[in-house]
Specification:
alpha/beta; 8-stranded mixed beta sheet; 14 strands; binds pyridoxal-5'-phosphate
């Protein structure tokens, strides 16, 4: 079957050339006579793959030596638990900035772990009151004493809200410059140049911009990892993972190899600066189609906070939304349904979604609005 245009929220589209390279090499990796799936993770062939993957992340982010790059398992949701598990000592507070559904989930999970550890969590700031997150205006609470970290989410995949875009809304960093900042960057990691200098630990599930699900990239200041407050179980300890070269246990070898290929592809696109320019143009094209539809398509998110990765919008009725989805599928455009918790339409424009796909989609949107508006 011909390849469809995949606008899914994650797992998202991957570059076709990468899928083809990996498929071609699956039975015989780099002329070694065996599959990457069969190679020992301690063998030279896979070690090279692993180290190149980590080095590419370092290179693409221009990371200094002060930072560690870890490739872990369990997806971003595991990080919701790992962060408090490593950094919340008894009596300490994990503070959360909640700007959407993923921030909420991180906070809830943090609370569960904190309860086990005799620690606690706090919503430091939230934009929930503002029409269910769509305005990035925060209600702040006074920080509780003994705050171990502040947790942020740089792109809210479900609500379509993104921070720190050029000319956009800045990440709501805590005013106290000494508080470590932890950031869930799952859905905009490596999608444009990003300044991680104020972030002690960032994590990203791979399945949006850089690879398959299950794999999670952690970029953290070594100092922060070394200062972990608790001794977490080995597989869940950043310090243990860092000490063992991020290979305490068997990594998901195929997922790492696919990620390596995606990162090489990303480098060919001009790195984060190159892909960032493309992503910016894609988002401009898509939001223009919404804004010029005379109200047929409505994006609820405040303009400055609109995500370049996930554009969410509504049509006049749920019935029209269903028709939009089925007509789009007939034109080979899939993955457009909004998250089941919010409904509507969501267009995810991750790195591997081409400009051509986005212009095809906007052409379809214009024609659909002309037919039904
Ligand atoms: C911002 C964000 N955080 C966390 C997650 C959870 O990721 P995973 O399913 O890899 O645990 C997602 C998944 O969509 C996400 O978009």
């Amino acid at each position: 079957m011909a390849r469809v245009m995949n606008f899914g929220g994650g797992p998202g589209a991957l570059p076709r050339c990468v899928l083809e390279q990996v498929a071609a090499e699956l039975p015989d990796f780099a002329s070694t006579g065996m599959s990457i799936l069969e190679h020992s993770h301690r063998g030279t062939a896979f070690e090279r793959v692993f180290e190149e993957t980590r080095a590419l992340i370092r290179e693409l982010l221009a990371l200094p030596d002060t930072h560690e790059v870890l490739l872990l398992q369990g997806g971003a949701s595991m990080q919701f638990a790992m962060v408090p598990l490593n950094f919340l000592a008894r009596g300490a507070v994990g503070a959360y900035v909640v700007g959407g559904a993923w921030g909420e989930k991180a906070f809830e999970e943090g609370g569960r772990v904190a309860a086990i550890l005799g620690a606690s969590t706090q919503v430091l700031a939230t934009s929930k009151a503002n029409a269910d997150y769509v305005e990035p205006v925060y209600t702040y609470d006074a920080p509780l004493g003994n705050t171990a970290y502040v947790h942020l989410t740089s792109n809210e995949t479900i609500h379509g809200i993104e921070y720190d875009k050029p000319e956009g809304v800045p990440l709501p960093l805590p005013s106290d410059s000494n508080v470590p900042v932890v950031c869930d960057m799952s859905s905009n990691f490596l999608a444009r140049p990003q300044d991680l200098s104020r972030i002690s630990l960032a994590y990203a599930g791979a399945q949006k911009n850089i690879g398959p699900s299950g794999l999670v990239v952690v970029v953290a200041q070594k100092q922060f990892i070394d200062a972990a407050a608790t001794r977490a179980p080995n597989a869940l300890s950043y310090a243990v993972q860092a000490k063992s070269g991020s290979m305490y246990n068997t990594p998901p070898t195929l997922a790492v190899e696919i990620t390596r290929r995606v990162l090489l592809w990303l480098r060919e696109q001009g790195g984060v600066a190159g892909i960032g320019a493309v992503n910016h143009r894609k988002a401009r094209t898509l939001y223009r189609a919404i804004d010029e539809s005379k109200g047929f398509y409505r994006c609820p998110v405040a303009t400055a906070a609109r995500s370049e990765m996930n554009a969410v919008f509504r049509l006049p009725t749920p019935a029209l939304e269903q028709l939009f989805l089925s007509d789009a599928a007939r034109e080979q455009m899939v993955g457009l349904a909004g998250h089941r918790s919010v409904g509507g339409i969501r267009v995810s424009m991750y790195n591997a979604v081409s400009e051509l796909w986005v212009s095809e989609l906007t052409r379809f949107m214009d024609a659909f609005a002309a037919r039904h508006g």
